[in-house]
């Protein structure tokens, strides 16, 4: 029976609960996935609660007097019926409630008065002040018996001030295992209405947990944390009332957390190596000691955690590698399986310690569109305790260990939300520490709100609180004219609203209250289309030509073959997350995804958006037919399929606010009002197709991609005027230029620069030097070969005088490598291109596409590039043949080299170079450098070998090219005599001699050779 069904059974035929008697109530605390409130007063205090544990059920009332009160006869009758394992179960009533016996008998229950619990009782009614039979009662509850407990803890606490009410109060020794605890706060009394749905569980008790001693024990002796030496972690959502963070970063992401649950304790790590590797030995020792709670029991270790078990043995812990066993004091495991989930929850509830670790980002990457908070295996275990592992892996690497004396100044989701709710309700300004939490809080709350509907009470109250906040304060207006500051209440509400999905109950009614209804768009009853279900490369978005209005629900129908194949439906294309920008012109997140887990999918977005089908990497479904209902037609022009007449007469007038234009290799998403006057989309699209052909040509790729590039225009993006990625994002001002043929013919540097970024491969990149340099090769190539715009005219930085000045200044400063970036870095690659043409680049980039195992080290990649490029410009010469002596022609624009200094008479000249064998062709003539380009100033390095003129040992040398004939002096590496050499530009290094280390420029610390 679900919690909702259980609640309705408990309050059947009841309109109000009368707590107006003289008895002083206490407050009840709830935790876990099964416990839910039945009666909550106007102060947010729980007075009656219910839960399930194992096969049994429990009801708790915050004072024993109300259990036998005539005002609660109907409720007690409902509770007994709900608690009974069978209709004819015998009810045992403690002698303290003797007045109940006759009342229950009158309502048809088999009942008897007793002083003790016996297993013959299907239900046992008792007070909360006797723990003699707590172990038997826990066993009975787990086995399927029912318990009704009444009592209050405030008076007990006055007599036991040094004790912990949550652990030591007798009633908590039983009820806590089911997630219900008596608390010592006074409960406010009055007449309270019974709500139609389960009341909202209060966010947080009006009590500060003192965990300073726990924190000191857990972090004892730790001055440095090596979290990121232990694999790439995920991070945690800490949402339980008795859960607290241990390790966080500067953006309030949590990497290690702990909690109390029932009678036990839990620690959660965000990677299994954090709890098993030897460099974490002090942390591991602390965690195990805290979890063991002084029992000195046996520590069970999952079988594959060998290092952890070895560490425990080394440090004197009794341990055993084993599957889970309830006799362990502590059990250590990973979060990659939900084996023993219920047994582990019961183990902790009854006093055990659990150490669990793992990351969720890999699981999320393999299960796109599936909610990790509910479906990730480890979360099936730990959600119950108030801690969840989420898939994020974007750590700041700036960690801080918490100082537990000021825990309330550290971020914890439930506590932060409680403070924000109070500030919103009372129209207060947001101050520290809440102001430093609110961005992370908004992110966490959006995750919580997007959880699909389920019976978990862990998240029920949090989701309900967030929905109530949105209904009360609405979704703030945001635009270029009404900007919203980061960290404000308005920014919080905008971010949380992104979590609203049609999986929420009554979503349409909720959306109707939140979304303005001034504009109503006509929807189609049914539209069918065929989409490409194959993507050999990366994830691909397939346009549908439909738009989902804000807050409306569209229906997408798939063939059976597409179900559970990793496909998703996405509503919205503006995929930049703006949460970290100082101010917002639109909501920070405006896209929603839904996994295709059934043939019919209902999808929505509170902000609206174009509808796409997402094809995962490696999917090979071929063409699939889908149909779409209750969506709005969008202006969508697909080159080669859409006719100009249909565009002009019909399609451009479709009511969606966003339009799309697609060719074989590129797609543009722009506001519809920008293109309403566009009469002939084919003209600019044909030009774009030529540009894309040139982009792929330079990259050495086929001229057709199974994932067209995308440009999406947005009112605000995360960075710059445009930025690369999929999609490439740009500002609205760019939208019209993209599809204006005349403007396009004048040049489109920004767009081709970003397309170049998307072609860059880490195998040839030398970060940070080439990051903003090599991408410009594609901009130059497309401008010169498609738009017929010379590089000097395509960008002012490429004007000859600017290039020359930039080189001269760099050489004057000694050519420091750290300055070799952007345009200066590009110069090196341009000089190669201007010397050898585009052919070597095209062939080299093509070869790089298939290379694997290249070290991610700049020096290695520099040398590899120099070697491979040299092989492209000059084929290798057989090692048995001497190098060529023929000198390539010197372009007229390059001055001749200085005269060769005389060789001292005491040193014989080097032997004459033998002739090139006739079977080997001479090297190609050096191409002329265009007259409008300054001569090369950055050195192109030459490699040579020669015998020492004194001792005849072989010398290897590297020297910068001076355009043709090379002159150099150097000491012999064997006898140190000075060598003078003159040699032509070498076409290649003989294959039997390894190339020396090549640098992009001569370091300034090396002096020039003597005259």
Automatic annotation (TrEMBL):
A Gene Ontology molecular function term of the record: transmembrane transporter binding
Peptidase M60 domain mapped to chain residues: 539-837
Disordered: region residues: 877-937, 979-1011
GO cellular component: plasma membrane
Single GO BP term: positive regulation of protein targeting to membrane
Source organism superkingdom: Eukaryota
Record's compositionally biased regions (Pro residues): 893-937
InterPro entries: M60-like_N, Pep_M60_3, Peptidase_M60_dom, TCAF
PROSITE patterns on file: PEPTIDASE_M60 (PS51723)
UniProt cross-references to PANTHER family, sorted A to Z: EXPERIMENTAL AUTOIMMUNE PROSTATITIS ANTIGEN 2-RELATED, SI:CH211-210B2.2-RELATED
Protein name: Peptidase M60 domain-containing protein
């Amino acid at each position: 029976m679900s919690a909702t069904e259980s609640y309705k059974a408990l309050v059947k035929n009841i309109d109000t609960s009368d707590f107006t008697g003289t008895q002083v109530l206490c407050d009840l605390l709830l935790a876990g996935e099964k416990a839910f409130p039945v009666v909550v007063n106007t102060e947010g205090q729980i007075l009656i609660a219910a839960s399930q544990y194992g096969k049994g059920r429990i009801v708790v009332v915050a004072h024993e007097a109300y259990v036998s009160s005539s005002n609660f006869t109907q409720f007690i009758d409902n509770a007994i019926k709900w608690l009974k394992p069978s209709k004819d179960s015998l009810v045992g009533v403690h002698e303290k409630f003797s007045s109940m016996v006759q009342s229950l008998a009158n309502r048809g229950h088999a009942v008897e008065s007793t002083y003790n619990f016996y297993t013959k009782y299907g239900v046992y009614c008792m007070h909360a002040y006797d723990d003699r039979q707590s172990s038997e009662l826990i066993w009975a509850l787990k086995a399927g018996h029912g318990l009704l407990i009444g009592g209050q803890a405030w008076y007990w606490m006055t007599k036991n001030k040094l004790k912990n009410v949550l652990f030591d109060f007798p009633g908590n020794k039983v009820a806590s295992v089911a997630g219900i605890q008596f608390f010592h706060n006074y409960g406010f009394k009055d007449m309270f209405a019974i709500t139609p749905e389960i009341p909202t569980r209060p966010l947080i008790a009006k009590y500060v947990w003192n965990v300073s001693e726990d924190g000191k024990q857990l972090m004892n002796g730790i001055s440095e944390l090596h979290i990121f030496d232990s694999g790439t972690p995920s991070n945690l959502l800490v949402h339980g009332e008795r859960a607290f963070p241990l390790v966080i970063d500067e953006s309030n992401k949590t990497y290690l957390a702990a909690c109390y649950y029932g009678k036990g304790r839990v620690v959660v790590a965000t990677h299994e190596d954090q709890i098993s590797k030897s460099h974490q030995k002090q942390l591991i020792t602390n965690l195990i000691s805290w979890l063991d709670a002084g029992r000195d029991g046996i520590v069970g270790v999952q079988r594959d955690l060998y290092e952890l078990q070895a560490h425990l043995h080394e440090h004197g812990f009794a341990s055993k590698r084993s599957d889970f066993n309830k006799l362990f004091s502590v059990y250590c495991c990973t979060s990659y399986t939900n084996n023993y989930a219920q047994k582990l929850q019961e183990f902790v509830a009854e006093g055990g310690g659990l150490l669990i670790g793992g990351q969720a980002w890999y699981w999320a990457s393999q299960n796109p569109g599936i909610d990790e908070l509910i479906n990730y295996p480890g979360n099936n275990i730990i959600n119950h305790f108030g801690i969840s592992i989420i898939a994020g892996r974007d750590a700041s690497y700036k960690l801080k260990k918490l100082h537990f004396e000021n825990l309330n100044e550290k971020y914890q989701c439930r506590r932060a939300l409680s403070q924000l709710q109070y500030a919103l309700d009372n129209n207060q300004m947001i101050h520290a520490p809440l102001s430093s939490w609110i961005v992370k809080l908004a992110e966490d709350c959006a995750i919580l709100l997007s959880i699909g509907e389920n019976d978990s009470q862990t998240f029920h109250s949090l989701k309900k609180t967030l929905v109530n906040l949105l209904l009360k304060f609405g979704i703030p207006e945001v635009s270029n004219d009404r900007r919203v500051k980061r960290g404000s209440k308005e920014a919080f509400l905008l971010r949380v609203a992104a979590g609203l999905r049609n999986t929420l109950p009554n979503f349409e009614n909720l959306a109707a209250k939140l979304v303005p209804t001034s504009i109503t768009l006509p929807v189609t009853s049914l539209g069918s289309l065929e989409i490409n279900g194959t993507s050999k490369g990366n994830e691909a978005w397939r346009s549908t030509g439909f738009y989902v209005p804000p807050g409306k629900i569209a229906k997408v129908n798939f063939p059976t073959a597409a179900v559970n194949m990793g496909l998703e439906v996405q509503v919205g294309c503006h995929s930049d997350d703006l949460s970290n920008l100082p101010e917002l012109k639109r909501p920070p997140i405006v896209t929603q995804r839904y996994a295709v887990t059934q043939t019919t999918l209902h999808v929505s977005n509170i902000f609206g958006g174009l509808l796409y089908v997402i094809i995962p990497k490696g999917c090979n479904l071929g063409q699939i037919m889908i149909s779409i209902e209750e969506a709005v037609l969008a202006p969508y022009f697909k080159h080669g399929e859409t006719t100009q007449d249909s565009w002009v007469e019909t399609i451009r007038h479709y009511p969606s606010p966003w339009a799309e234009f697609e060719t074989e290799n590129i797609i543009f998403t722009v506001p519809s009002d920008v293109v309403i006057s566009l009469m002939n989309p084919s003209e600019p699209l044909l030009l774009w197709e030529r540009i894309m052909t040139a982009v792929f040509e330079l990259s050495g790729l086929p001229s057709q991609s199974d994932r067209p590039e995308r440009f999406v225009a947005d009112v605000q993006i995360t960075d710059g005027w445009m930025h690369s990625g999929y999609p490439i994002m740009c500002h609205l001002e760019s939208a019209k230029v993209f599809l204006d043929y005349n403007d396009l013919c004048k040049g489109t540097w920004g767009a081709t620069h970003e397309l170049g970024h998307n072609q860059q491969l880490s195998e040839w990149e030398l970060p940070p030097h080439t990051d903003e340099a090599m991408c410009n090769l594609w901009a130059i190539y497309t401008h010169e070969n498609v738009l017929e715009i010379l590089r000097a005219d395509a960008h002012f930085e490429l004007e000859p005088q600017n290039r020359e000045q930039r080189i001269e200044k760099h050489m004057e400063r000694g050519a420091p490598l750290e300055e070799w970036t952007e345009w200066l870095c590009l110069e090196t690659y341009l000089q190669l291109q201007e010397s050898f043409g585009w052919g070597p680049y095209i062939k080299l980039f093509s070869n790089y596409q298939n290379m694997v195992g290249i070290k991610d080290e700049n020096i290695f990649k520099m040398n590899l590039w120099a070697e491979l490029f040299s092989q492209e410009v000059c084929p290798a010469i057989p090692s048995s043949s001497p190098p060529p002596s023929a000198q390539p022609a010197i372009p007229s624009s390059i001055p001749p080299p200085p005269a060769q200094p005389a060789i001292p008479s005491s040193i014989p000249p080097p032997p004459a170079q033998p002739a090139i064998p006739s079977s080997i062709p001479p090297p190609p003539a050096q191409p002329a450098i265009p007259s409008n380009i300054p001569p090369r100033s950055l050195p192109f390095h030459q490699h040579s070998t020669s015998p020492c003129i004194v001792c005849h040992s072989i010398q290897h040398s590297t020297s910068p090219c001076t355009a043709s004939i090379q002159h150099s002096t150097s000491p012999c590496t064997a006898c140190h005599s000075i060598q003078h050499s003159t040699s032509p530009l070498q076409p290649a290094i003989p294959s039997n001699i390894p190339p020396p280390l090549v640098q992009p420029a001569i370091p300034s610390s090396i002096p020039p050779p003597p005259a």
